[in-house]
Amino acid sequence: MAMASHLLILLVGAVAVTAATETAHFLGVNYGRLGDDLPPPPIALELARSAGAAAVRFYDANDTFLSPAAASGLLFVPGVPNELIPNLAASQLAADEWVAATLLPFRRNRRFRYLFVGNEVLSDPTTKSRWFQLVPAMANLRRALRRHGMRRVKVSTTVGMDAIVGQDVFPPSAAAFRADIAGDVVRPLIAFLERTGSYLFVDAYTYFTWRANHTVVPLHYALLETASSSPSSPSTSPAFQYYDEGTGLYYENLFDQMLDAVVAAMCRLGHCGVRLAVAETGWPNAGDLDEFGANARNAATYNRNVARRLASGAGTLRRPGMTMPAFVFALFNENLKTGPTTERH
Ligand SMILES: *[C@@H]1O[C@H](CO)[C@@H](O)[C@H](O)[C@H]1NC(C)=O
Ligand SMILES: *[C@@H]1O[C@H](CO)[C@@H](O)[C@H](O)[C@H]1NC(C)=O
Fold this sequence. Notes:
GO terms for molecular function: hydrolase activity, hydrolyzing O-glycosyl compounds. The chain is an alpha/beta fold.
């Protein structure tokens, strides 16, 4: 086991789960497994815990990993793979059977509270039929969970920032969901989440938004290195605030701005009240030559600051005091992922 190849950024500031309150605040870590050099589950889970994570999120529901996670004392979030969505949407029986076969062992485990149905389903235009099967699959799985005595489990899904038109968060108050999903998919999705008291889980990486616009947006704004978030950091950069003319609000970091863009997009569809949470955030610790800013130092800074920000309970300008579950990406570098180098780091 080559532990040296795993770069684990300490999640300083992670806090424990707030007891049984409806708006759970905790910081977890994504446990992706697309690597051929990853340690066995008990060691991985111990790494997650020692880094300060209160929860682990999986991209599937493989018992080899779920069972040790369930016994670890951490919160654990299983995922329903995208490929299963058509079948689970088409048949209540299929959903009942999947829940019985996969999740029944965890029926009484109070640390099983969320189920993610699919991962960034709305980002993939090559499987567009699944977009329309997503909410029916979520509804069938929710019924199946209730039938099997797991009422407490909130059913959700994860949404990338590409669900927002042009991924444009400038200004956040003008953000809207893409026209090809807004009315037909996102509106029923957020109606479902609101009705069931669940969260919309977004994948929000300030890194990519900053990189696309680095001539305008300073790095420290993307790293949450503001005076209030990091009193100890040397003030090498001038203060930067982004002014949203639509709301008259001044933003002090890009993370809040991105979350408020999603809030604005939900409000635009008439569902202002849906709770928001973060399925993935983080910063790449390495990248290709043109992927500037991707390095371990920035990654550590970002993770530290975002953990502190979330733990502060400050919320965002549109949602002051908002607390939410959030997961850093990721526990490991994953050497079998394709795409640019940042994907593997
Ligand atoms: C679960 O993961 C183990 C270990 O990687 C693997 O051997 C097994 O085939 C997986 N099971 C399923 C159902 O994918
Ligand atoms: C870059 O930032 C400016 C405002 O500072 C904004 O008008 C523009 O839309 C942004 N571009 C992208 C690609 O986000």
